[in-house]
């Protein structure tokens, strides 16, 4: 099954949807997102990677911004589909 990965934002001035930019994740952000995808908590991820929980939350915020998503499910879906899992 091939899903369309195009994301859009609504441009109020032009009253139209425009493609949203999706930025590349850093290797660490990918590592955090993979751990989130398998169900690890922020505490488990921080212990596994040797960084604080607040750093994990900062990574998650940057991941959401870069992928232009609002939920963890969206972020995991986009990442999985980009890796050919879906």
Please, could you describe this protein's structure?
By secondary structure, the chain is mainly alpha-helical. It has a domain at 27-82: Arc Repressor Mutant, subunit A. The protein has four helices and two strands. The chain has helices at residues 27-37, 42-49, 53-67, 72-82; strands spanning 8-11, 16-19. Strands 1-2 form a two-stranded antiparallel sheet. Helix 1 crosses helix 3 (53-67), helix 1 crosses helix 4 (72-82) and helix 2 (42-49) crosses helix 3 (53-67). The longest helix has 15 residues, at 53-67. It is elongated. It starts with 7 loop residues before the first strand and ends with a helix. The model has no long low-confidence stretch (mean pLDDT 82).
CATH class of the domain at 27-82: Mainly Alpha
Look at the helices and sheets and give the structural class: mainly alpha
Helix and strand pattern: EEHHHH
Q: The CATH topology of the domain at 27-82 is what? A: Arc Repressor Mutant, subunit A
Give the helix tally.
4
Tell me, briefly, the overall form.
elongated
CATH architectural arrangement of the domain at 27-82? Orthogonal Bundle
Number of strands: 2
Q: In a nutshell, what does this entry contain?
A:
With 86 residues, this protein is mainly alpha-helical. Helix content is 52%, strand content 9%. The chain has a domain at 27-82: Winged helix-like DNA-binding domain superfamily/Winged helix DNA-binding domain (Arc Repressor Mutant, subunit A), CATH 1.10.10.10.
């Amino acid at each position: 099954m091939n899903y369309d990965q195009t994301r859009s934002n609504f441009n109020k001035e032009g009253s139209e949807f425009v493609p949203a930019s999706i930025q590349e994740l850093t290797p660490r952000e990918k590592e955090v997102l993979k751990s989130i995808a398998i169900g690890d908590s922020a505490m488990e991820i921080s212990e596994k990677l040797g960084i604080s929980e607040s750093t994990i939350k900062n990574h998650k915020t940057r991941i959401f911004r870069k992928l232009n998503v609002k939920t963890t499910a969206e972020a995991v879906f986009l990442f999985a589909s980009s890796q050919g899992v879906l």
